[in-house]
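Saturday, quiet lab. Running sequence design on the structure tokens for the scaffold JK sent over.
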């Protein structure tokens, strides 16, 4: 297994994991800093529910990074966005870097 090199994870993001809903709105866990590579590019993606949605940016993080859908992410620019999906990308032994792709609204 080849992990994404740490020197590629040039950006710092803050992850607030989605815990569920309450009578006053969504609940989030404590903020957790993470290293990532952020690509602010608009593209169409499919949500976990099967809907086609627009992603305004994507963060690439180290394997094992867990980010539930609807979690809140603060990008290096200060923009706060929500997670559409968090997808493991495993090269299956090929010479490609294993990582996690975090699709953001």
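Result came back. Writing it out in full:
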């Amino acid at each position: 297994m080849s992990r994404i090199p740490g020197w590629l994870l040039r950006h710092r993001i803050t992850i607030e994991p989605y815990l569920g809903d309450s009578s006053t709105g969504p609940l989030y866990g404590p903020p957790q800093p993470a290293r990532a590579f952020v690509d602010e590019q608009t593209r169409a993606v499919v949500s976990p529910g099967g809907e086609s949605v627009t992603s305004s940016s994507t963060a690439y993080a180290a394997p094992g990074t867990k980010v539930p859908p609807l979690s809140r992410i603060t990008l290096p620019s200060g923009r706060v966005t929500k997670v559409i999906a968090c997808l493991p990308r495993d090269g299956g032994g090929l010479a490609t870097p294993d990582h996690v792709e975090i699709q953001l609204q």
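Notes for JK: The radius of gyration is 14 Å. The chain has a mean pLDDT of 91. Ask whether to fix the surface positions before the next round.
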